[in-house]
Amino acid sequence: DAMVIQNPRYQVTQFGKPVTLSCSQTLNHNVMYWYQQKSSQAPKLLFHYYDKDFNNEADTPDNFQSRRPNTSFCFLDIRSPGLGDAAMYLCATQLRGTAEAFFGQGTRLTVV
Amino acid sequence: AQSVTQLDSQVPVFEEAPVELRCNYSSSVSVYLFWYVQYPNQGLQLLLKYLSGSTLVKGINGFEAEFNKSQTSFHLRKPSVHISDTAEYFCAVHRMNRDDKIIFGKGTRLHILP
Questions:
Q1: Phi-psi bin for B34: left (phi > 0), alpha (psi -120 to 50), beta?
Q2: What's the pLDDT tens digit per position in B3-31?
């Protein structure tokens, strides 16, 4: 059974049109991460939550926002997607104080 | 700050041959170490992890890795690869007892040749 679920798996959006990616988890983990992964590169952390505490990476563009309305759900909002935002977006969860992170299947975003 | 170096961006190997994917890390404190595998258009799947104890760690799909503290390495090995092992492999570290992010290496693409 999937424990970290990302929807949709594939998303096509128009240049400049806001888009939202979603992540849900059944693990009741208090930490959730959003990573951006471009082709043939390592995942790059955008931001993460410890419970409701939001932590933004210093180099994450303002174009990227996130919401976590409750423990189970986390959203990534891209306000005005550019061609350079086309990537795989990975959500991960972790129980605070433990080492292992659990990843979803990812959402591949295409910007046209 | 910690960092992870994967020395090889691509590794070609013949089917049924052994393989080693190299990973070195740097950190001023003790770390947990991980190897993740990523198949095309998929998320990351944990292969194995070193938290403490025995330095030889066995994971899924016949992979194993050895933690070497003096050489700050955590190389991944498999004695006989299969075509289904074609994927990207990421080494990662996480500082012990810290609320830190996981740091990934740049990945190694494993090509299995028939």
A1: beta
A2: 899 999 999 999 999 999 999 999 888 88
